[in-house]
Amino acid sequence: MEPEQAEHLSQLHSRITSWFTRNARPLPWREPDCSPWGVLVSEVMLQQTPVVRVLPVWQEWMQRWPEPAALAAEPSGEAVRAWGRLGYPRRALRLHAAATVIVTEHGGLVPDTHAALLALPGVGDYTAAAVAAFALGQRETVVDTNIRRVHARLVTGNALPSQSLTAAEMRLAVSLLPDDDAGSVAWNASVMELGALVCTARNPRCEDCPVLADCAWVRAGRPEPHYVPKGQAWHGTDRQVRGAMMAVLREAEGPVLRELLLAGPVDLAAGQETVTTPLAALHALSAPQEQLERALNGLVRDGLAELSGDGLRLPA
DNA sequence: TACACGTGGGA
DNA sequence: TTCCCAAGTGT
């Protein structure tokens, strides 16, 4: 690298990490006394899920299951129930499975290498890197949606990163990473936070950006994205039905009769149900019988629920 | 590679 | 009101 480039990179590092020290949110999993297990749980919960929704659930989990062994000792259904409404409940199942692997194969301690972390259920490339960096202080190339967006704007000059992670993006992230462990950890956390608080997907707060003067996207006149992000369908999907069924199972004490879950819309005029209960909400979807059965079978197939007699319940 | 997979709050 | 999207993973 040319001396000039090295100097420029060093300035980006100090500007962004300095901004972080002044503006970072005080999150409990960033505290020095937070265990690797606490960091792992936070990272899985934060997958596709905003910080504000994770906070209370994470606190509950740490209180109830301060170590992997405590979680592994319980039925997976308890993890799913305690997951609440965070969404993507299979993450709870995988976290429970990860705790089991940690106990059986790692002596109850969260593994301390990227490769071993990556082998855990529910831990992909991002989460393995994040835990190695943030919990273990290791030099890792952490690439999440925030970091990708900051890189896309600051360096590449695009409004948004490509739709899928490219080799070029990875090379760029590697080239920007500070050489030392501590510096790289601070950089990863800082760029991620910058993306979350300032360099946001919609309405970025460029006035508050510590590297506004260096931003290739701003310099280019803030051009529009190269593509139109395609939104996820929701209304009428299997996911909507599965979600409604899971809500019923979470609040139920015991098994819920299949006929109740598979029933068509009830006669609301009869006054037996209001849309305030999960079961009423499920019925209110008026999903076709075929879709209800497909959703139920999917939950069982995925291990989120199990048949018990003539009913369905969270895994015991 | 593309798609399935939950949820709720802000614009 | 509708749409967007938030610290991705597994198949």
TrEMBL record:
Give the matching PROSITE patterns. ENDONUCLEASE_III_1, ENDONUCLEASE_III_2
- Say which domain of life the source belongs to: Bacteria
Cofactors named for this entry: [4Fe-4S] cluster
CDD domains in the record:
ENDO3c (cd00056)
Question: What UniProt keywords are attached to this protein's entry?
Answer: 4Fe-4S, DNA damage, DNA repair, Glycosidase, Hydrolase, Iron, Iron-sulfur, Metal-binding
Q: Might you give the EC number(s) for this enzyme?
A: 3.2.2.31
Which SUPFAM superfamilies does the entry link to?
DNA-glycosylase
EC class name: hydrolase
This protein's record includes keyword Oxidoreductase: no
Specify the HhH-GPD domain's residue ranges: 45-197
Q: Which Pfam families does the UniProt entry name for this protein? A: EndIII_4Fe-2S, HHH, HhH-GPD
* Reactions catalysed: Hydrolyzes free adenine bases from 7,8-dihydro-8-oxoguanine:adenine mismatched double-stranded DNA, leaving an apurinic site
PANTHER family reported in the protein's UniProt record? ADENINE DNA GLYCOSYLASE
Q: Which family, according to UniProt?
A: Belongs to the Nth/MutY family.
This chain belongs to which protein, by name?
A: Adenine DNA glycosylase
Q: Which organism is it from?
A: Arthrobacter pullicola
Phylogenetic lineage: Bacteria, Bacillati, Actinomycetota, Actinomycetes, Micrococcales
